[in-house]
Amino acid sequence: MRVSLNTQIFLGALTGIALGLLFAGLGPESSSAKQGIYLCGLVGGVFIDMLKMVLAPLIFTSIAVGVANLRVHSQLHKVWISTLGFFVLSMALAIVLGLSAANLFEPGKGLNLDLFHNATQGFAAKQMTFAEFIAGFLHSLFVNPFTALAQSNVLAIVVFAMLLGIALVVGGERYRNILALMQEGLELMLRLVGWIMHLAPIGIMALLAQLLATQNLALLSSLAKFVAVIIGTTLLHGFVVLPLLLFLVTRVSPLRFFRGSREALLTAFATSSSSATLPVTLRCVEQHLHVKPGIAGFVIPLGATINMDGTALYEASAALFVANLAGIELDLAQQLIVFFTTMMAAIGAPGIPSAGMVTMVMVLQSVGLPAEAVAILLPIDRLLDTVRTMVNVEGDMVGSLVVQTWVEPDNA
Ligand code: ASP
After folding, report:
1. Residue whose CB lies within 8 A of the most ligand 1 atoms, among 300, 389, 394, for a mutation test
2. What 3-state class would DSSP assign to 384?
3. What is the rounded CA–CA span in Å between residue 393 and residue 313?
4. Which pLDDT value is given to residue 312?
5. Domains of the chain with bracketed CATH
6. What is the mean pLDDT of the segment spanning 330-353?
7. Ligand 1 atom at shortest distance from the alpha carbon of 310
8. Pocket test for ligand 1, best of 269, 272, 313, 342 (most atoms within 8 A of CB)
9. pTM over 0.90
10. Is the dihedral of CA 13, 355, 260, 194 positive or negative?
């Protein structure tokens, strides 16, 4: 009997969780646990390396070909507007949800302040003003394409490939051969992704085992309420809000969506990186959810860097948590500032593990909260990053289906 890849990945994830709990049970001194964790780190790391290996050529070809395939100018315009519109809408919903949950449950209130002082002492957070952040973001858009490709700088590759795609459309027949070459390059990369995915069950197993075995349980339990609020609201967004939005616009049932997207969701959960997951995300929407390559090739790579619902929700809630912890009350106007800076911070966060923690400094500073508070959240971030990256990637996949319906209501 042949077990499907999806089932293998699912079994791999379960085995990883069991193994991680076993290592944690053996204790940090046990040499078998140490060896096991080391081996898992190695195997999981190699799996992520493989995904990153195909990342740069994959997004480069998928965006260029995607944009070039949207031949008609008005269609390009429509895709562009719908994509940005959807990204802003879904992130706004996520932030409102995050702020509402934090106002309702007030995590951090009444928590032992020593924890705050101990953790923040000696931790110098890099200061980042809003203006610096915007300037840095603008500078990161236009980079020498060879540097961008060599460094797997997703945002810069997206921008260059988009311009190239537009030039291919405008040039038309003249660049027929280059377009054909890129198309074949894209197919070739997707073939490699298919091979790498055969290793996903083992890679995901190793990553989850290592993650569970290396958690700081004492800190986790003292921040249990915050962790529960964050995970609960993020899952609410991922399992209720996004599927509802998807159903209302496209009539695609949540069941069909989750069946088609689970490879990417599990990979995102285990790697905590939207960028590393990108090859899998693209494969899921094109092959399982039947989004046209022209739309998927544009929405998914762009979404992996700027559309982050999970991160937006997290940063907004975490800002209120820090305020509670520091005994500062944020009024409505200040929460509105949090809303806007969070949106920018989520857009600016690259799709790598714990990137959201770096851009969160800006959100905290925008309302005068101590940026050093990031130090409390860092040790538990790897755990929270799993769920928020999963929802980040889910948002991109939902986005590609929604944009397809908005752009081609008759063919979607
Ligand atoms: N790890 C997240 C991602 O890759 C970003 C974050 O840290 O919030 O999507």
Report:
1. 389
2. helix
3. 14
4. 97
5. 5-411 (1.10.3860)
6. 91
7. 8
8. 272
9. no
10. negative
